[in-house]
Design goal:
Structural class: mainly beta
Order of helices and strands: EEHHEEEHEEEEEEEEH
Distance between the termini: 38 Å
Shape: globular
Strand content: 35-45%
Helix content: under 10%
Number of helices: 4
Largest sheet: 5 strands, antiparallel
Radius of gyration: 19 Å
């Protein structure tokens, strides 16, 4: 015998702001009477066409910058405001989700980026952005194209830069790939594990500890 379930929808509120485009949001939390949303945003959707292979193959092509913007919605009057946290390019953003998801106290986000002095071509850097003041720092190496970084906290870490970043990097010069291990605090290399072949370049990545698999 089938049981009918009735789902009553709650009130829907509509708000509007200037148009923008986004693939990914970074974090969101309540701040008193405001909803705060950190979003990896673009001015428009032109980034979609720039990802086409025919566009990437063009000499001198430059990807539009996705940047960290902070949107605030006043829950009383539904008005939305925003400001640019950092003008650094970032895509595939990650934070220490285990401890800081929906927490406004988070300090840093990590992602793939374009080296400020080398904007042509595909994402050639990893970036770390301070969500409090917008400061940014990078890792890059000529001919290397990193994938989405994963932050892994040290045991008993004190904050969300006390740990390591993991990223699978395509090394175009040597035609292979390697797993890169960075100190998240200094964005300096600790180690790399090289494989003899190129790993298919993908968008997303994930880290699973032994404890998470048991």
């Amino acid at each position: 015998m089938k049981k009918e379930i009735s789902l009553e929808a709650g009130p829907i509120n509509m708000s509007s702001t200037e148009a923008f485009f986004s693939f990914h949001h970074i974090n969101a939390w309540d701040d008193g009477d405001e909803l705060v949303m950190d979003i990896n945003a673009y001015d428009d959707a032109s980034i979609v066409e720039k990802y086409y292979l025919k566009e990437l193959e063009k000499p001198g092509t430059q990807l539009p910058f996705g940047t960290l913007r902070r949107y605030r919605m006043d829950l009383r009057n539904k008005k939305i405001s925003h400001h640019l946290v950092s003008d650094a390019c970032i895509e595939l953003p990650r934070i220490d989700y285990e401890r800081f998801n929906t927490e406004g106290s988070y300090g840093f986000t990590y992602g793939v980026s374009l080296k400020p002095t080398q904007r042509e071509g595909f994402y050639n850097s990893l970036v770390k952005i301070n969500a409090k003041n917008g400061d940014s720092s990078y890792w890059n190496e000529d001919g290397c194209y990193p994938g989405e970084p994963c932050f892994v906290a040290r045991p008993n870490s004190i904050n969300d830069e006390d740990g390591v970043l993991l990223s699978i990097v395509l090394d175009a010069k040597n035609k292979n790939s390697f797993l890169l291990l960075l100190d998240a605090g200094s964005m300096t290399e600790i180690a790399r594990a090289t494989v003899p072949q190129a790993i298919v370049y993908g968008f997303h990545a994930e880290f699973f500890s032994e404890n998470s698999l048991s």
